[in-house]
Amino acid sequence: MFLGEDLLAYLVLAIGAAMAVGNGLAIIRPPESRRDEDDLEKAPILRSLFFVVIGSIAAIWAIASLIA
Q1: What is d(CA 41, CA 31) in angstroms, rounded to the nearest whole number?
Q2: Rg of the chain, C-alpha, whole Å
Q3: What b/e readout covers 9-29, taking b as 16+ CB neighbours within 10 angstroms?
Q4: How many Å apart are CA 50 and CA 56, to the nearest integer?
Q5: Tens digit of pLDDT for each residue in 12-65?
């Protein structure tokens, strides 16, 4: 198989971890300067926490699939 048999698990791990880390950092440390007038000053907390949870679940599931 092209790029290995565990390609889907690796992709889910990468996307889930990126979603969790990116939204977590957006909550902890919002951007210092605004670029456009339409940009928010800080990330919406509930939506970002939801994405952190979903990304963490996806990453943990992918790690469990790779181990098993």
Answers
A1: 7
A2: 15
A3: beebbeebbebbeebbebeee
A4: 10
A5: 999 999 999 999 998 898 777 766 767 777 778 999 999 999 999 999 999 999
For residue 29, the 8-state DSSP code is S
Helix axes 7-28, 45-67, angle to 10 degrees: 150
Distance CA 32, CA 18 (A): 21
- Give yes or no for a contact between 56 and 24, defined as CB atoms under 8 angstroms apart: no
Which amino acid makes up residue 35?
R
Type of residue found at 56: S
Higher local confidence (pLDDT), 67 or 39: 67
pTM: 0.80
CB-CB contact of 26 with 65 (8 Å): no
